[in-house]
Amino acid sequence: MQERLKKQILKKIYFESQDQIFDNKHFSFTNDKTKTINKIFTQIANKPQFNQIRKRYKLEKLLSKILLPKHLHYVLYAYYRDDKLTIAVSNHIGQNELNFQKLTLIKFLKQIDEYKMIKDVSIFRDEEFALEQQTKSESTIEEDIKFSEKSYGIFENNIKDKKLYTLVESIRKSIKQK
Question: How many other CB atoms sit within 10 Å of the CB of residue 87?
Answer without folding.
Answer: 25
